[in-house]
Amino acid sequence: MYDRMQELSSAQMTKVHDASMELLGKAGIVINDTEALEIFKKNGFKVEGKKVFPTETQVRDALSKVPEKFAIEARNPEKSVSVGGDDFVLLPGYGAPYIIDASGDQREARMEDYDTFCKLIHTSKHIDMNGWMMVEPGDLPAATAHLDMTLSSILLCDKPFMGSPVSRQGVLDGIEMAGIAWGGKDKIMDKPVSISLINSLSPLQFSEEMLGSLIELVRHGQPCIVASLIMAGASGPVTLAGVMALQNAEILTGITLAQLVREGAPVVYGSTSSAMDMKTGGLSIGAPELSKNINYTAQMARFYNMPSRSGGGLTDALYPDGQAGAESALALLNTLRGGVNCVLHSCGILGSYIAMSFEKFLMDEEICGMVRQMIKPIDISDEAIDIDMIAEVGPGGQYLTHPKTFKLCRSEFYMPDLMVRTNHDAWTKAGRLKIDEVAGSKLSQRLAKYEKPDIDPGIEKDLAAYVNSRKNA
Amino acid sequence: MYDRMQELSSAQMTKVHDASMELLGKAGIVINDTEALEIFKKNGFKVEGKKVFPTETQVRDALSKVPEKFAIEARNPEKSVSVGGDDFVLLPGYGAPYIIDASGDQREARMEDYDTFCKLIHTSKHIDMNGWMMVEPGDLPAATAHLDMTLSSILLCDKPFMGSPVSRQGVLDGIEMAGIAWGGKDKIMDKPVSISLINSLSPLQFSEEMLGSLIELVRHGQPCIVASLIMAGASGPVTLAGVMALQNAEILTGITLAQLVREGAPVVYGSTSSAMDMKTGGLSIGAPELSKNINYTAQMARFYNMPSRSGGGLTDALYPDGQAGAESALALLNTLRGGVNCVLHSCGILGSYIAMSFEKFLMDEEICGMVRQMIKPIDISDEAIDIDMIAEVGPGGQYLTHPKTFKLCRSEFYMPDLMVRTNHDAWTKAGRLKIDEVAGSKLSQRLAKYEKPDIDPGIEKDLAAYVNSRKNA
């Protein structure tokens, strides 16, 4: 449809593709994992030391095997999701080491915060999937925290969850635990029950942890998002066109490796590359350049006929204020209008990924709900228009007490949870709460009502036993 | 392009059009102005009492005369604007009786507030045109306030301005004053130097003031936005499809009248119809239903080959908080992506049009700047991609000190005026300012630097003399 957002022509996307291939041929890409290098070699790829040089034919061959769409099963089958095509899933924030609380203070995140996010996701009307490392629990040993997080992800929420791509072992632990939950590892080998985030190390590298994780995930039938996060002007070129070519080279290499490990492996084309802030030298995720890239990323993924991941409720603000609202809304609306399939960071992020905020989580949920309503098509049938009714009400008439208004108002109109729609007097009488304060009051009500979803007690015991045995190994 | 926002098919838009025509045939539309009724009668329209019943042929004939695009000249020719096609103009908030200040208090607006908005618009990087009645000055007599506002609009800002459609006399005063500014009324008869907002009175009515204003504006060559503001479920049907048919009937009637007064009169197809809030019974302008209608309005205007007006930075929040940021950003991005040409209410609105806020004005300006950057196409040439440079930097390299980064970073990246992009420590040291507080501090700096734009002293004297003579008449 007519849209002022830039639509890339097929020729432009081909140019980006060709540039990526030329780049891989000229510079190669550093693969910091012995098994991954072996896989490339075995399949006839040119390898020099740690550098791999994929060719057009090799990449095209791999791309031809990528599924356009796949499902991720939840332990509550009603909550299974579909990734690809017109479908989309909203996921929470990811990887934040800190919590910013209602007073604006920043503190290290703890395991209890992780659990609280699992509870919020379980009870969310708008978030479709549980995340991974919504916060990094600073109170747990780094070597085993992934076990506790995976346990909470499975027990506290019955939506599909994200995997733990912290290392080969982290992935294998996640697979074992999913196997317990689904009654055997063989049950999930051809059935995605999680999705995991594999990031490149820009420019033109992949770390050993990420490569090992990717290989084990794919080997066990679990989908990967292969994503790049370039900071334009620092870890990538200053132009967005250059960023697109560079990130595309990285993503295509990861996706190619996945297809070499297992043909037809479900993968997602991902990027959240953005601009460097020129004053601080830091990454800006509220930057409009990221919203441009969100749209280009979705277009490139469609060009390759595969699902995309980008965007979310992204902001550089350090508090759920007007900046957080504006930046998150712009990014989220761009993400969903642009056709992104996997929306990580939909809720909760503050300060360029540094922190999660419970109040911001609820605020972002409302934005998710609003955007869902915006993109929901309306019915333009004779019945929906109902000319006879409008003619009957006539000039100067009123519709407030019309039976049709009563009948349809709840299905036609979005009912906000947090947004203030009163007048100034009523707002003043209610204490002039700003939306972050409204969110704070709703938060405690919601957590008070949380109920842990049912699970077979045997499975719960086995999961706990697995975690304990691994901790004591 | 691929977009999850609903694209109406030609068949769906034809259905809306046909429904509007059927409605006008069945119910008619009440025209509360003697001259307007005479014009319709004289042109062979069926008129019964105050009701007019336009036919398909009569409306189509009028529509065929509407220009697709037109220019509005500013007294500073560098600031003239174009309305229609891919071009858009951003205008400030309109019609608010109150100011909500930085403390959240609401007070009656005064003429000095109006003047302050003129100064902000004059110095705005993002607002293209001066508005009309950004606030309603409660300290001036209602009968003559339009004279003071028009004088300020012309003197304090050299961008194109909006006209005063308060009454026939209000319009004629505006024409006289524009005539003084342009060296004679004959100079503007075929040259738009203003645009004015003509609203229907839903359902299916036009007031005497609006009709008289429309006739005089068109007669003097000045463009009109013909707009409808239906509250779905109160002054219009509960379904958006019904609202579309009803508002279309109203808008087409106004546009038809304009073409009967003067063939080829520049007009704009406008709507900001939205939903009723089910809890308060009031109009919600932060509602996602309005953002849907923004898109449909732009599509219907393109269907008729004429410019559109909708949207803006719209919110129900009573303070520039996270809600204001989120709602305004959603509406503004939808407006600009959707292809709207005339964006009234881009900056400053709070509380469902009840108030303007200076801090919100600056916050919305930042959103306008970000959206402009988002929709600015990028260059995907070989030079912009620059594969040799990326290959040379190579795996693990850095771009921060690369000459190209220095050369292009200011043109490639949007530089925010208000948005915080520091870390938590720096934010804390700076006093943990939220964006509304940052806006407050920028506001006084900006107003302190304001300089009144040059104008011929003779013109300024004549304008003041006109205002005085009319006040003493």
TrEMBL record, chains A, B:
One of its GO terms (biological process) is methanogenesis. Belongs to the trimethylamine methyltransferase family. Its EC number is 2.1.1.-. InterPro entries: MttB-like_sf, MTTB_MeTrfase. The lineage of its organism: Bacteria, Pseudomonadati, Thermodesulfobacteriota, Desulfobulbia, Desulfobulbales. Keywords: Methyltransferase, Transferase. It comes from Desulforhopalus singaporensis. GO terms for molecular function: methyltransferase activity. It holds the Pfam family MTTB. It is an enzyme of class 2 (transferase). This is Methyltransferase.
